[in-house]
Fold this sequence. Notes:
The structure is a homodimer.
Chain A: H1 2-12, E1 16-20, H2 29-39, H3 43-61, E2 67-70, H4 73-76, H5 79-95, E3 99-106, H6 110-120, E4 124-126, E5 129-131, E6 138-141, H7 147-160, E7 163-169, H8 176-179, E8 182-183, E9 186-187, H9 188-201, E10 211-215, H10 220-229, E11 235-237, E12 261-265, H11 267-270, H12 286-305
Parallel strand pairs in A: 1-2, 1-12, 2-3, 3-6, 6-7, 7-10, 10-11, 11-12
Antiparallel strand pairs in A: 4-5, 8-9
Helix pairs in contact in A: 2-3, 3-5, 3-12, 6-7
Amino acid sequence: MINKLIEKIRKTNAPIVVGLDPMLDYVPGHILDAAVRGLGETLEAAGEAVWEYNKGIIDAVYDLIPAVKPQIAMYEQFGIPGLVAFQKTVDYCQEKGLVVIGDVKRGDIGSTSAAYANGHLGSVQIGGRKCSAFHEDFITVNPYLGTDGVKPFVDVCREEKKGIFVLVKTSNPSSGEFQDQRVDGKPLYEIVGEHVARWGEECMGDSYSYVGAVVGATYPEMGKVLREIMPKTFILVPGYGAQGGTAADLKPYFNEDGLGAIVNSSRGIICAYKQEKYAKFGAGNYADAARQAVIDMREDIAGALG
Amino acid sequence: MINKLIEKIRKTNAPIVVGLDPMLDYVPGHILDAAVRGLGETLEAAGEAVWEYNKGIIDAVYDLIPAVKPQIAMYEQFGIPGLVAFQKTVDYCQEKGLVVIGDVKRGDIGSTSAAYANGHLGSVQIGGRKCSAFHEDFITVNPYLGTDGVKPFVDVCREEKKGIFVLVKTSNPSSGEFQDQRVDGKPLYEIVGEHVARWGEECMGDSYSYVGAVVGATYPEMGKVLREIMPKTFILVPGYGAQGGTAADLKPYFNEDGLGAIVNSSRGIICAYKQEKYAKFGAGNYADAARQAVIDMREDIAGALG
Lengths: 306, 306
């Protein structure tokens, strides 16, 4: 799957992932109203609205980008109907040929991580049959529990040719509280990065590992160091746009082959129609606004990478 | 909810939580076969089997214990039908008066943690209506992203009088890889523990905070130190039984008031019928075996606490 991701990045010339993180107040009124008319003010209506909203965006941008990253929390908040919308979104994106990165940030003790790995990347055995549940192509993983909490994901990646991105240095303001703590002069995120590089050696694609890392665009100095520590690791970079990271900040995340990183934007794309810059599209054409925002992001990044 | 938990611990005289972590090979053959006969070898059959299995256990033990802890990964691996079984389990346990600790280990950047907090502990606004999704009483939270990833959970706890248990020192063998790293001579788990105590001050019940901690039974020396660092923090203690923690290891987790900790057992209870000690019950009476295992665990812990 890392090979497919890289091939698609090359083909689209866009190291971009669109974050499908639908807050209900991002959804244009006409979509939400239609869902509520049919289903009442219910979780079912929220799930339906989110799915319709996503579908519009996917149809408008799928030919421009290699991958999407649905954030499962935004679906899970609506309970079962929300997770049905998540599942439909994953399925639909895969039908459209997109690589799907489930932003689930799971991680637990070994046997429990194995259940998450099976549910999101692999399959479960039911009687004589293998059944797969959410079947994303990649997921994000939290490393706080150490190797035996991450290993089950790596094992499933190796079997299924799927991938993970392990949280190393996150984009949020207080990420440093624990991640930057210095251990013998070295920040913890570097130690985690060293582990990610090691875990990844067991699971190599053609040029990069199936085990990637998450490093926020909001910390480019740290990105530079982590790029060196993890030369074969693909980096998923959140924090561009709405969170404050700029295109100029992105260069250190890439290798000299022009690869090695994929940059996420969520709000900046899916909610573009609410920005002044794209206001002319209006809520009715929110998907066209998203398409234009993807084109602009592609140019912005290409310009900065030179 | 922390007051309710403490009241129920006092009433049952059992600082015990039963982990409802149903692996499919724990489910007795007659239950799984019936589900597969009706629904085929499908995720739906797995969900149905897990729910029937849980229901039997809950009916057999609910009067003996204050709380249950369903591990959501064991349901999520079966996709939507698995999560329907999770939801039914939460609802049924609450009907039986049990406190439900959703072992979800969520944690993300602020806005995303807020979505998880709303989905698991609070509610979401849909039009003019507040709808709640999974509505556990407590959930577990991963602190790797720092204060702004934990704060949204604390905020919802304060509003809804619900609670969280933040991972501080987990029970698994490699938990020390990152959690034990020394920062100026002090292990990271102590620094996390200090934060948990501070977060908890904002959110106090009568004698303990709504913000608890997870500290594994497998590390009693560390449990002792953490008990001192977090005097008003209730500690959820996994790792007793199948993972190797013994009753003698548990004393340091409790305060002098005899409170302050609740000990989880999963496999040791729900899969008791597969142990030699309880084999006489047989798979048909797996729920009675679970009841006997709870009674034995209660005595074991009472004996060790003196």
